[in-house]
Amino acid sequence: MFLRNPLSSTLRPYRLLLAMLLCAQCASALADASGPLGIDRRLGYDESAMWSANTLKTIEVASAALLVSAAVYEGNNGRLGKTVWKSVDAMLLGDLTAAIGKAAFRRQRPIDGNDPNAFFQSSADTSFPSGEMTHITAIVTPFILEYQKDLPAIWLLGAIPAYVAAGKLKTQAHWQTDILAGAVLGIGAGWWAHQRDSAWTATVLPGGFSIGYRKSF
């Protein structure tokens, strides 16, 4: 009997994203790419409305606000409520690990200099890893893992990290390896949260939050 690799099901919804990154890597290899994996290349700057920093920031803030609101409303009961709270765990863990990585590696952003090897620079340099990519990937991963068999359409949530990745590259906010590292951190945080019996945040917050507004009233 063969043991099932849990990471295989985790990565399945992100095949499109991984394929896009692979294509970007191949294109970069033919266009004077550099960096730790030899795939980093600064793209042409594009901050149209679709890719603007404000749009991407709105997605980041709105996703966190919507998630926390859903957690308070649903409570830590039932399949959906437990999944929402696990997603909160994943988001917090992802945001924390990304912040630590930024402080440790101090990588210069593409817009600030065309050198993907510029690590350990000023404390103001926070390119690696991509916090936004970690954030949104961590949020959607527990939902995909929980519902991918019963609701295949849940895989479409993987399009959100793909969109964020494209926007961050187009606005020269991140290198390709920043995005890749953020995706790995986010998936890892989401997988960790999904494997737990219950969400950590639901146990440390006051009982009213974990009971949920919907059942309390």
First-last Cα distance: 49 Å
Main sheet properties: none
Rg on CA atoms, Å: 18 Å
Q: Total number of helical segments? A: 10
Low-pLDDT stretches are none
Describe the global form: elongated
Structural class of the secondary structure composition?
mainly alpha
Oligomeric state: single chain
Helix content: 55-70%
Number of strands: 0
Report the average pLDDT across residues: 86
What is the beta-strand fraction? under 5%
Number of domains: 1
H-E order = HHHHHHHHHH
Walk me through the structure.
With 217 residues, this protein is mostly helical. The chain has one domain. The protein has 10 helices and no strands. It has helices at 6-11, 15-29, 53-74, 78-105, 131-147, 159-170, 176-195, 200-204, 207-211, 213-216. Helix 3 packs across helix 4 (78-105), helix 3 (53-74) packs across helix 5 and helix 5 (131-147) packs antiparallel against helix 6 (159-170). The radius of gyration is 18 Å and the shape is elongated. The model has no long low-confidence stretch (mean pLDDT 86).
